[in-house]
Design goal:
This protein is mostly beta strands. Helices cover 0% and strands 48% of the residues. It has no helices and ten strands. Strands 2-10-9-4-5-6 form a six-stranded mixed β-sheet, with no helix packed on it. It has a four-stranded antiparallel β-sheet with strand order 1-3-8-7, with no helix packed on it. Strand 4 and strand 5 form a beta hairpin. It starts with a strand and ends with a strand.
């Protein structure tokens, strides 16, 4: 079955950086487009970023443009999200997903940006 296991979250001060990872299994990762979505407290799921199966194409929500970088290692079936210049409004649970809506996603990793 599909398994998506996120890691790398934590508490970081504003302006700091974190790199999230997502280990995927149970499907053909190398031919799958992949997504990051997030959910802030009291809010719905928000799409953050996507990457094509080869990694040649990426896209970002306006909230993360210029600060977030999505990448993947198909040999390791792992998805990444490098987040720089973090802001308090980036506080959320971050999920990797097989679809943009996040209907097929992992358990998530918590990111808290606070001084």
């Amino acid at each position: 079955q599909v398994q998506l296991v996120e890691s790398g979250g934590g508490l970081v001060q504003p302006g700091g950086s974190l790199k999230l990872s997502c280990a995927a299994s149970g499907f053909t990762f190398s031919t799958s487009w992949m997504y990051w979505v997030r959910q802030a407290p009291g809010k719905g799921l928000e799409w953050v970023s996507l990457i094509s199966s080869t990694g040649s194409g990426t896209a970002y929500a306006d909230s993360g443009k210029g600060r977030f970088t999505i990448s993947r290692d198909n040999a390791k079936s792992t998805l990444y999200l490098q987040m720089n210049t973090l802001k308090p409004e980036d506080t959320a649970r971050y999920y990797c997903a097989r679809d943009r809506n996040g209907s097929i996603r992992g358990q998530g990793t918590q990111v808290t940006v606070s001084s």
